Amino acid sequence: MRTIKKFTMFTLLFSTSIFANNLSVGNVQLVGQDATNNFTFIQFDVSWENSWRNDLTGTGQSAPFNYDAIWVFVKYKVQGEAEWKHATLNTSGYTPPTGSAIDVPSDGKGAFIYRDGNGTGTFSLSAVQLRWNYGVDGITDDNANVTVKVFAIEMVYIPTGSFHVGDGTSTDIAGHLHRADSTSVPFEITSEFSTYTLGGTSSSNIGNNNNEGLNIDYPDDFDNSPTTKLLPLLYPKGYDAFYMMKYEITQGQYVDFLNCLTRNQQDKRTATDLSTGMVNVTNRYVMIDPDGSGTSLPGGSETMIARNSIKCDSTISSSLPITFYCDYNDDEIPGDGKDLACNYLHWLDGSAYADWAGLRPFTELEFEKACRGTLTPTVNEYGWGNTSLHSSSYEPIINPGAPNEVPSSSGTNGNSAYTGTVDFQFGPLRAGIFATGSSTRIIAGASYYGVMELTGNLWETVVSLGTQEGRDFEGTHGNGVLTNNGEHNISDWPISLIANGQIDKVPGAGFRGGGIGGDFAWPPERLRISDRMFINVQVNFRALEDGMRLVRTAP
């Protein structure tokens, strides 16, 4: 039996290369192979800035009693095979570097890495080792050449605990949740594995202002009181702990994803026609749906629109996978624009990324938990916990498309990219643009737990509790594998009405958090934590204002 005699290493294709925290992974190696038991160790160095932990008893303990982390996962490809596959990690058998903790969930799809003690600032680790059970993945020692890619995404730990949904507002109602016996009283979520009742008039039920102010494509929500619906036991309610991406999916992250897909999958997860047989590409900015129809061809654009910089070469193979990159300046030099939040993401695109990365979408209850935390709701509050809102233009943007992109001015009120601060068709800003090592929650536009831009920048695509398709969601994690058409393959996740990979409406998914405009200049009310105007609205096109972020239930 021959050992795996050669591994070709890739340094990290930065899944979250955010200037504010400067995440970097390098010096990737495979070491300590055990050919008898078919495993080896993936070793790498990792560092990111503005890390924190404050939940442990002793010095440094403080609210919100949580920490940040990175989700690390690995893709591999055996020489002679076309497909990048997901590596299975062992749940034990490794020693975390001093100062760190490592949690590998039972499915082995990745690892959470974080501080093992309270602290703040740059967190650097050398020679981190994760055990890869390559035998479980079907690799024999006769496979001589294996290439691996290591990815890392910054996450925020949202701890277990009760919280409220709705804020009791009486103005600009948009389906706000509340205690069913009183529209002015927020509803408290006190358990994860409980079957809550939606609608009716009982104080133990969740109400929604009888659909008032909702823009509904698929009516339900919850068919108006006194009709009641059951919120199933397994629908993720946000009470139990979970990890949430610190930022919305960036354009660099989405490029990393595209570059691990087959040609047919790439074609389905982009707007430009990149189907087999296509060799000349005119519309090289591949994510853009210029007329918003979702069906017209050719999709994509010859020039960048709304700051989406994802691009491919003008000449491509007729059948092999394409290499994508970010080129904000259109100067044929890759790299600029990769830290911008990724717009033009439809549910099918974002949920495919979730499945590929071993993560999952999150529910609208988890959205409100991540925003508000354990605090008592404030009427009409935004994601940073009060009603202050910056209202003058951030334009012109300084260092546009660069890792150090910043607004020309910001101020001390809550910072958010929306139609009061950027032109409604301008496009998204850099993920984490308002945050520094010393900025307050309000100035950074951060949630209670430190999640960035939950209200503002791009709209958050979430799982609704207002349709049966949404309520059937059970929070199953992605398995790292997509269908041949580039869609997720998780049975309890919302999926399109046609299962061929093409963009179409997806009952059960909707939008929260507000953000930049698209066809319309949305008012600041859409930024409020409790606003649900578009929770049951579905689109059959890629919209310039839509993005996505993901979560994973804590091990």
Spatial gap, N to C terminus: 37 Å
Q: DSSP helix count?
A: 6
Strand content: 15-25%
Order of helices and strands, N to C?
A: EEEEEEEEEEEEEEEEHHEEHHHEHEE
Give the overall silhouette. globular
Structural class: mainly beta
Instruction: Describe the largest sheet.
Output: 8 strands, mixed
Could you tell me the radius of gyration in angstroms?
A: 23 Å
Q: Which residues form runs of ≥5 with pLDDT under 50? A: 1-20
What oligomeric state best describes the polypeptide chains here? Answer: single chain
The count of DSSP E runs of length 2 or more, i.e. the number of strands, is: 21
The average pLDDT is 92
**Helicity, in percent?**
under 10%
Itemize the secondary structure elements and their pairings:
Layout: E1 6-9, E2 24-34, E3 39-53, E4 68-78, E5 85-86, E6 100-103, E7 111-115, E8 119-132, E9 145-158, E10 163-165, E11 178-179, E12 187-189, E13 196-199, E14 206-207, E15 228-231, E16 242-245, H1 251-258, H2 263-268, E17 310-311, E18 325-326, H3 347-357, H4 364-372, H5 441-444, E19 460-463, H6 468-471, E20 509-512, E21 551-553
Parallel strand pairs: 1-9
Antiparallel strand pairs: 2-3, 3-8, 4-5, 4-7, 4-9, 6-7, 9-16, 10-12, 11-14, 13-15, 16-21, 17-18, 19-20
List descriptors.
single chain; about 550 residues; mainly beta; eight-stranded mixed sheet; three-stranded antiparallel sheet; 6 helices; 21 strands; about 20% strand; globular; disordered N terminus
Report on the structure:
The protein has 555 residues and is mainly β. It has a domain at 6-158. Helix content is 8%, strand content 21%. The chain has 6 helices and 21 strands. It has helices at 251-258, 263-268, 347-357, 364-372, 441-444, 468-471, and strands spanning 6-9, 24-34, 39-53, 68-78, 85-86, 100-103, 111-115, 119-132, 145-158, 163-165, 178-179, 187-189, 196-199, 206-207, 228-231, 242-245, 310-311, 325-326, 460-463, 509-512, 551-553. Strands 1, 4, 5, 6, 7, 9, 16 and 21 form an 8-stranded mixed sheet that branches. Strands 2-3-8 form a 3-stranded antiparallel sheet, with no helix packed on it. Strands 10-12 form a two-stranded antiparallel ribbon. The radius of gyration is 23 Å and the shape is globular. The relative contact order is 0.15. The model is unreliable at 1-20 (pLDDT under 50).
